[in-house]
Structure formats: structure tokens, C-alpha cells
Design goal:
Number of helices: 8
Distance between the termini: 63 Å
């Protein structure tokens, strides 16, 4: 009885700590975006109501796009490609980095309300943080040089940052946190990767052969789609 209570208390503590980490991460990312926007960038001025409406629309589209997930042959099943970053990136390019971060957050909240979580919320934190590591640098570079070349460079920088940061974040925090909160040993997680690719035999090789190419592919695909769609959507926003 006491042993079960001890395990329950330990699980509660782990979840509380994880929630505090989530709150701190959101606050930190938002503060960085706000500081960059206020001190350096000059996003378009709009009424708070219209700005909130646009962010809500883009976030809703992104949440719906999260239903269309695609497994990749080189990665375990819990790494699935979706296109939800496209509307978030368009929102960032249209309204600025702060709007992009808020859009990313609202997207995750809507996804949790619609689909729930199958990863003990670790995957949801990963989507938010890794998504911000892409749209935040991309939008900052674009607003510093609002040209087609600036957009391409921004998306290239965002892809590079997401690939490096997202991979390190998986190795250092996300995979260990998933192991603790989901109750699955790291060896079992690695074994799922081994079934996909025999070269995967540790956390580091899982990140190298699955997470790195996954983030790189996602950044490239999202960038190409955004490049093709952004100007058409921006014209519609200006008309509104």
C-alpha cells in the first residue's frame, strides 16, 4: 500500500514538474519574441481584435491540418509529418514573431481539445517548442529583410535552427521525459527505432538517423509550401 502511494506521489511530482517546465518554456519563448519585436522589428500595426481574429483563424487551420499525419519510412511511428506549421509560418510572416508564437500555442491547445494526447503531453510540448524554433527565427529574418530573398533566407535559417535545436532537445530532454511520464524505458523506445532502422541502437543514433532527417525534411516541405502560398494569402489579408 505504502509502495503504491509512493509511486503515485512520484508520478504526481513528475507531472507537476513537467507542467511547470511547459509554462516556463512558453513564457520564455514569448518573452524572446516580444523583445525582438519591440526592440528591433516593426510588424504591421493592427487592432487587437483583428490581430486576435487572424491568429485564431490560422491556429484553427493548423489544428485541423494536424489530423493529416504521415508516417515516414526512416522514423518510428511517433514521429509523423504534418503540415500544421504552414499556417503558423504564414501567420508569423504576416503579423510578426509574437503572433507566430501565440498561434503555435493556440494550435496545440486546440489539438489537445480535439484529439487529446497519446504521448503524456511530451509530444505536444515538442510540437510547440520545435515549431517555435522554426517559425521564430524564420519570421525574425524575414521582418529584417521583407523581400522574397529574405523569406527564403529566413526559412533556410529556421530549418537549420529547427534541425539542430529540435534534435538536441529530443536527445537531452524530450525522450527522457517521455520515458518517465509515459512509463516506457528508453531501451524500449530505442528498440522501436531499431525495428525501422538497424543502425539505431541508442538515443544518439535514434536522434541522428530519425530526428535529424525528420526535422530537416519537415522544414524543407513547410518552406516550399509557404513560399508558394504566402503572397496570395497576404494579398487577401491586405484586402480585408
Amino acid at each position: 500500500m505504502l509502495e503504491n502511494l509512493g509511486k503515485l506521489w512520484a508520478a504526481v511530482q513528475d507531472n507537476v514538474v513537467f507542467l511547470l517546465v511547459c509554462a516556463a518554456v512558453f513564457a520564455g519563448v514569448f518573452a524572446v519574441a516580444l523583445a525582438l519585436e519591440k526592440l528591433w522589428l516593426k510588424p504591421p500595426k493592427q487592432s487587437p481584435a483583428r490581430r486576435a481574429a487572424y491568429v485564431g483563424i490560422f491556429a484553427a487551420i493548423a489544428a485541423v491540418l494536424m489530423y493529416a499525419e504521415f508516417a515516414l519510412p526512416f522514423a518510428p511511428f511517433f514521429y509523423e509529418l504534418d503540415f500544421s506549421e504552414v499556417p503558423v509560418l504564414i501567420c508569423s510572416f504576416s503579423l510578426g514573431p509574437v503572433a507566430g508564437v501565440v498561434c503555435e500555442f493556440v494550435k496545440e491547445v486546440l489539438k489537445l481539445l480535439l484529439k487529446g494526447t497519446s504521448t503524456a503531453f511530451v509530444g505536444d510540448l515538442a510540437n510547440f517548442v520545435v515549431g517555435c524554433s522554426f517559425v521564430l527565427p524564420a519570421s525574425v529574418v524575414y521582418f529584417a529583410n521583407k523581400t522574397k530573398k529574405g523569406a527564403i533566407i529566413g526559412m533556410g535559417v529556421g530549418t537549420a535552427v529547427m534541425t539542430v535545436f529540435g534534435s538536441l532537445f529530443n536527445a537531452v530532454y524530450l525522450l527522457p521525459a517521455f520515458s518517465v511520464l509515459y512509463g516506457m524505458p528508453l531501451d524500449a523506445i530505442v528498440a522501436i527505432g531499431t525495428d525501422v532502422n538497424g543502425a539505431i541502437n541508442s538515443v544518439s543514433t535514434l536522434v541522428l538517423f530519425a530526428v535529424v532527417p525528420f526535422n530537416l525534411l519537415k522544414g524543407v516541405v513547410v518552406s516550399v509550401i509557404t513560399f508558394l502560398l504566402y503572397k496570395h494569402i497576404e494579398r487577401l489579408l491586405r484586402m480585408r
